[in-house]
Amino acid sequence: MSAGRPPVAATIGLPPEETVRAFEARDTLRATVRWSEMWHADHARAFTVAKVAKLDMLGEIQASLADVIANGGTLEQWKANLIPYLQSKGWWGDVADRELTGTDEIVRVGPHRLRTIYDTNLRVSRAAGRWERIQQLKVQRPFLRYVAVLDARTRPAHRAWHGTILPVDHPWWDTHYPPCGWYCRCTVRQLSHRDLDAKGWAVTALPPEGPPQMFFPAGRSTPVEVPAGISPGFGYNPGKASMVGAVDKATWSIESAADTDIAAARESLDALVQSDALPQALAEANTRFPVMVLPSKIVADALHRVVTMSGAIGSGLLATGDAVAADGANAIGLKELRHLPAIGASPDHALITNDGKVTLVQKVGDRYLAADIAPVDPAKAPLPVLRQDQPEPSPIRSGAVDSPDEARSRRLIFLRQPFPWMLLVLRWMEGEELGELLASLDDLLS
């Protein structure tokens, strides 16, 4: 071993870019007293260190970890760089300062706490990055095998899970994708059919599970179930949570840009929709992927201009890749979903429908693609909900109002919504159906 070179076991090498993206998606800083104040997917959106109450200190710790994740380094190197800063701020040793810790309790800050911060953040970020790569390769390698270290420190439950082989999208990985606890060293290996044949392996049955633990996260009055063998706070898939966090961040960035530079917002959106991120996001039911930036004439002065599509709705529309429907004519595949930014940017018609939605229609070839969108309360999705302090407007039909001013007023009542827009349906429409709708519904673009 060359002089000055740390042992391999102590080194976190340069990770793939997916790991960096997973960590960088957590760009919100959140002060917490107890680690369980943030639960599961919350960690994909925000960075926290328990008992750090000052955001400038959180930011410094986050930046130091980001450097290690992007450029490599050892625990000892990271501590050597960070400890002088923490000491200068008074967050070292026995700390009894509520302004620093957020609690009146004495907080012990030393090497063990730093090791926990380092180990957990790097392992979870690498697991999230690995999951993105797994999704990219799951057609060629559709199976995962749980791999434990199998030494004296291995937890009994993790040892029992060793060798479990299940499809990549099996729900077991939603809770048992490692790390599954503090300092968990387990991982997964992605396998192809050829790999299984070469090893004489096969998809296994689910391993036996004991009764779940009941755990009370900080600040909650009701317990949550934690699968047996998994430490509280680790019973989730950080890769799936990271995708949700990254997509939420992208949506916020596009929404922010739309008010000042709509061309740049649409360019960013189109690049995102055309990328591999779209099919990856559709594999996660809880994602809300941005697919349109609406023009001012449609959204008026609404709070939101971006239309998102949930993974559940998108995967329902999308069969497998660009698979065609039985008749070959009305298929909605990846190609059609990737046309959504163009529909949002320049629809030929925008019709307020009888059930309180807006149908955007654009001619594609000799037919029409129609996208139903609606402002949706995230707490009540997927049902479209109007603002609670206003009466629900009746459908706007041609000739159904007394004057153009009243028509405009009722349009604005509908369009000035506090809720984000969501795609509900994308479908092909024939000219005859469009003609019937134009004869009966109000067109916002007319």
SSE blueprint:
Blueprint: E1 11-12, H1 17-24, E2 28-29, H2 42-45, E3 46-47, H3 55-71, E4 73-74, H4 75-89, E5 93-95, H5 98-101, E6 107-109, H6 111-137, E7 143-147, H7 156-161, E8 165-167, H8 172-176, E9 187-191, H9 193-199, E10 213-215, E11 224-226, H10 238-258, H11 262-274, H12 277-282, E12 288-293, H13 296-299, E13 306-310, H14 311-317, H15 334-337, H16 340-345, E14 349-352, E15 358-364, E16 367-375, H17 404-415, E17 421-429, H18 431-440, E18 442-443
Parallel strand pairs: 2-3, 13-17
Antiparallel strand pairs: 1-4, 5-6, 7-8, 7-9, 10-11, 12-13, 14-15, 14-18, 15-16, 16-17
Short account of what is shown:
The protein is of the alpha+beta class and 446 residues long. The chain has 18 helices and 18 strands.
The largest sheet has its strands arranged as 12-13-17-16-15-14-18
End-to-end CA span: 75 Å
How many alpha or pi helices? 18
Shape: globular
Features:
446 residues, alpha+beta, 2 domains, 7-stranded mixed beta sheet, 3-stranded antiparallel beta sheet, globular, disordered N terminus
